[in-house]
Amino acid sequence: MPNDNFDQPLCIGPHRLMPGQRQTIDLPVGHLVTHQVLDLTVHVRRGEKPGPRLLVTAAIHGDEINGTEAIRRLLNRRMRHLAGDLILIPVVNLPAFVNRSRYLPDRRDLNRLFPGSKNGSFGARLADLLTKEIANQCTHAIDLHTGAVNRPNLPQIRYSDDVPGAKELAEVFCAPVTIASTVREGSFRDVFGRQGMVQLMYEGGEAGILEPAPVQLAINGVLSVMRHLQMLPQAKRNETRGKTVFCEQTTWQRAPRGGLFLPSVNLGAFVEEGMILGKIGDPLGRQKTPIFATHSGVVIGRLRNGVIDEGDGIFHIGLTRRVGAIAKSIQAAEADLDHGLDHPVFDEDVES
């Protein structure tokens, strides 16, 4: 989707930004119980040449912090040759972020309140502000997430298969695994889906834990998308990245009984139907129950709780039989991460 209005002012709240301008904008959302004004902080970078308008967001769930760190690092890149517009929001759900919580103070999930309402609850007003002032003016979006507490996710991209161009952009992002998934009504993805706009949702790591690998993969993916959209020049050094593996469906492997959870496979492992994924120990010491895989595929998420109940989702499996492709994708991601802290992504002031 082209940005046909690039030469016009980009209006966000009372601010008008022309091409070439950069500004950090604090949009008032409302007042907290302490009378403190709550703002949505938006970083806007307008290039001097026409191009798409990309929105990158994080912490819609306040305890999912890997995306916030990824955006913080992106903000430290100069991007002098930027074409189009880049809008970065490191913390969407600030009240939840401050409380180290997934949810808003009223225990609602912000990612079920879109497109929001200016006369609704606090969360609905935040969703309305983000939708009308920011999202509706963008051509593309990437929303950064993690797994929930005690449910880490293998870095992965989710996209809407019915949106033209979404699969291509998901492949360019190049997470180890890519999944075509349905859009939940009321989610941020739903805002873009209704307009036929391309939006990717990245999942990597676990809530509440800052992890270098998912952070770096998120940054690499965003920069790859920007280069593909011709918002940035191609990388000067030769970057050899692997290919993502597409999983058309996912399923949860559930606990056959309650007890002590003793897994024997980790994230990224390829499992065959019938193989043993671990055991469930009887806490009273009487027996162990093996966990047999009910499907073949790659482990894209798992439970870390030591004590489980019958029926708990313990392994999230992306369905695929492409064993070799999975191994190459995981190895390529690991090789990319092996650069360590001397990799440009960890440089606080690098050129793009």
Automatic annotation (TrEMBL):
GO terms for molecular function: hydrolase activity, acting on carbon-nitrogen (but not peptide) bonds, in linear amides; hydrolase activity, acting on ester bonds; metal ion binding. It holds the Pfam family AstE_AspA_cat. Keywords: Hydrolase, Metal-binding, Zinc. SUPFAM superfamilies: Zn-dependent exopeptidases. Its cofactor is Zn(2+). Residues 50-229 form the Succinylglutamate desuccinylase/Aspartoacylase catalytic domain. Transmembrane segments: none annotated. InterPro entries: AstE_AspA_cat, N-alpha-Ac-DABA-like, N-alpha-Ac-DABA_deacetylase. PANTHER family: BLL3975 PROTEIN, SUCCINYLGLUTAMATE DESUCCINYLASE_ASPARTOACYLASE FAMILY PROTEIN. This is Succinylglutamate desuccinylase / Aspartoacylase family protein.
